[in-house]
Amino acid sequence: MTNYDYDLFIIGGGSGGVRAGRIAAALGAKVGMAEERYMGGTCVNVGCIPKKLYSYAAHYAKDFADARGYGWQFPVEPQFDWPTLVSNQSKEISRLSTIYQSLMNGVGAEVFHERAALLDAHTVQLQSRKVTAKEILIATGGWPFVPQFPGSQHAITSNEVFSLETLPKSILIVGGGYIAVEFAGIFAALGVKTCVSYRGTHLLRGFDLDVAAAFTIELEKSSKLHLQSNVEEITKQGGRLRVRFDRGDDIEVDTVLFATGRHPNTKELGLEKLGVKLAKNGAVIVDKHFTSNIPNIHAVGDVIDRVALTPVALAEGQILSQRLFGKGNKEMNYHDIPTAVFCQPEIATVGLTETEARERFDEITVYKSQFTPLRHTLSGRVEKTFIKLLVDAKSDKVLGAHMMGEYAAEIIQGVAIAIKAGATKADFDATLGIHPSVAEEFVTMRTPA
Question: Is residue 306 in some structural domain?
Fold first, then answer.
């Protein structure tokens, strides 16, 4: 297509970069890629996939306990072996990473497993050589952020947690977002004494307040919670860690995990030298077409800090390549994106929160239901399910659906289709429920809260 070495060169081999490369190659572009760590990016290697596998492991602990209420007897107590979990998930992650490499090989793309940085708008400096490209895509994702304070070097992040050699007896998890509460559920279920510290007044900022409140009650059944609390210092004492908080108290734990967010991974890429505009947190500023202020430099995925979800990065990468090398003119729609938090119990949501709905609509109707699911009437587990629907009172259109409970992600995925299609509350009411199921609650709520 051009006189450059590549029509498209991608820095970053995660979900967004790989999807963009595959689509571009299918449209006839010559594609190159640099990935210095691992193919598949955060999601495959140190994110959603291993985290979900660990979540499954945690659920087995609860399932064994629940089974007794249904007559199951265990002559010998089930034993959990952490090294087996670590080893098996490592093998699976390695297999998936290899698949990402194969996907790029299959479309004829050339992948360099080395560091890359920009020398100018069309030249990429690799460790082994310089290459040129007509279009350049930054898809380097995000990187865990740990604030600097005395002893912060003793903390680990989600990058290291999956390869811990031994299961700690106690852990402090710092953060109140989805990563923090997911790991809290995992470690607590595996028998680790778990404490969660968060500087805010409530967990899961950005989620519906009722859902966050309901989940907080559930989390406190298994973990100790420190709200409005900041870590001031970590000191190592005889193989353990003493953590001092700004409110004067301290605790001693085996491990401290910081899950305080991720920052766009743009350091030492040469972007600032080229004049590429970056946000204060390092995110590449792009327009609706994912193009920076330099016309041939683009960015997708977590590095643009819009919606940090794997399916979003995939869609962004595809839209970009179809525009650059095909006849695509589609724009990304960020409305009604379903998402899940694989905490325990699970949370899933789609559409507006109640706060957002009240800001955008004159009048909304709220439907809520909180109950003990049928399964736990015999298991004896004290765990509630919470479901909420938000409806525009004028049009009857369903604006948002939120759920906390088992299989929330599987259930909300189906509800998301209805909301994306513009379903009304009357449509939900006209749909017969599957009985007995938790999901039927979405079509049987009749009385506004």
Answer: yes
Instruction: Indicate whether 123 and 158 sit together in one domain.
Output: no
> The whole model's pTM is what?
0.95
- Cα–Cα dist 165/188, whole Å: 18
What is the percentage of the chain residues whose pLDDT exceeds 70?
A: 100
Which amino acid is it at 339?
Answer: T
3-state secondary structure of 31: strand
Spell out the residues 6+ positions from residue 240 whose beta carbon is closer than 8 angstroms to its own. Answer: 252, 253, 254
Distance CA 91, CA 35 (A): 20
- In sequence order, which residues have a C-beta less than 8 Å from that of residue 47 and are 6 or more positions away? 41, 158, 310
Question: Which residue range is the domain that position 345 belongs to?
Answer: 339-443
Number of domains in the chain: 3
The pLDDT mean for the chain works out to 96
**b or e along 344-353 (b: 16 or more beta carbons within 10 Å of the residue's beta carbon)?**
bbbbbbbbbb
**Options 113, 298, 335, 435, the catalytic residue:** 435
C-alpha to C-alpha distance for 338 and 285, rounded to whole angstroms: 24
Residues 6+ apart with CB under 8 A from 33: 9, 10, 11, 12, 13, 17, 18, 21, 104, 109, 110, 111, 112
| Residues linked to residue 349 through DSSP beta bridges, in sequence order | 339, 402
Q: Is 242 helix (H, G, I), strand (E, B) or coil?
A: strand
327 CB-near residues (< 8 Å, 6+ apart): none
Task: Inform me whether the pLDDT recorded for 350 exceeds 70.
Answer: yes
Quick check: is 202 catalytic?
Answer: no
